[in-house]
Amino acid sequence: MSPEFALRLVEACTGGAIALSALEGLCLRGQREAGRAYHWSDEHVARPAALRVLYREPGYTLLCAARLVLGLALAFGLLAGPARGLVLFALLAIGFLVHDRLRYGTTGADLMMGIVTGALALGALAPDDPAVRQGVLWFVALQAVLTYAATGVTKLRIPAWPDGRYLAAVFRSRTMGHPLGARLTADPRVARALSHAVIAFECAFPLALVTGGRGALAFCAAALVFHASIAWMMGLKMFILAFGATWPAIVWCAAEAERLFAALV
Fold first, then answer.
1. Cα separation of 150 and 48, whole Å?
2. How much is the pLDDT for 80?
3. Pair 6, 248: CB distance under 8 Å
4. Which of 4, 93, 138, 223 has the most CB atoms less than 10 A away?
5. Of 98, 105, 111, 121, residue with least CA distance to 143
6. Are the CB atoms for 213 and 254 separated by under 8 Å?
7. What pLDDT is recorded for position 33?
8. 3-state SS track over the chain
9. What would you report as the CA-atom Rg of the chain, rounded to the nearest whole angstrom?
10. Over pLDDT 90: what percentage of the chain?
11. pLDDT exceeds 90 at position 114
12. Among 82-96, 150-164, 180-194, where is mean pLDDT lowest?
């Protein structure tokens, strides 16, 4: 896989994740009415007049619509030249505004989208430089594996995670619960085993970069199953595309590291 193709896959998945996030924002318009969960009140948070216009309706709906259109354009490769860089920086700016507007309810998927978009935007400043393209891919890959590992280590340090109580509580919750998950984790032994499997997988993810292209592909395939299961059972659909955007970079970097090591020995 060439670095150009890997970078294109990163862009496509990132654009798809942004578009999905924007679509969710459009679908949640009813939650932004007075008295609902995402209503914006100028009385609670002081912002400049221009931002208050964007954060209230219909300004925020128009912001989500613009984000949807730009995200789809990025996903389908409709951008080239200076327009690509401008759109990436525009998406980065809109992402900051959305995060500021929501103030809660965002996840690690939103953070990963922002980091990858920022890397792509900086890379677009020198689109024809091979070293810049490879630098973007290495940055994205390292960011991803470190994020997985940090998440696993964090879980390991919270006693309720290794012993299965946290996972069982999540599956019983109203917002992210699921009947199958609740039944599986009703047995403390199963809950502990599942929790240990998740923690071990996340902590071991940096090995993807040192196991060659095929090893990295296996790690990413396992991550796809992991995130798809979470999307199905907990409703966190954004993680598939947001973290999926990093997998082409991981596979390319692992294959490149394998090639360089073989050349040295």
1. 36
2. 83
3. yes
4. 223
5. 111
6. yes
7. 73
8. CCHHHHHHHHHHHHHHHHHHHHHHHHHCHHHHCCCCCCCCCCCCCCCCHHHHHHHCCCHHHHHHHHHHHHHHHHHCCCCCCHHHHHHHHHHHHHHHHHHHHHCCCCCHHHHHHHHHHHHHHHHCCCCCCHHHHHHHHHHHHHHHHHHHHHHHHHHHHCCCCCCCHHHHHHHHCCCCCCHHHHHHCCCHHHHHHHHHHHHHHHHHHHHHHHCHHHHHHHHHHHHHHHHHHHHHHHCCCHHHHHHHCCHHHHHHHHHHHHHHHHHHC
9. 20
10. 54
11. yes
12. 180-194
Q: In the predicted model, what is the mean pLDDT of residues 229-244?
A: 87
Evaluate if pTM is beyond 0.70: yes
Token pair listed for 87: 């759109």
Q: State the CB neighbour count (10 A cutoff) for residue 86.
A: 14
Q: Specify the residue for token string 């991803």.
A: 144
Which sequence spans correspond to the domains of the chain? 1-128, 129-265
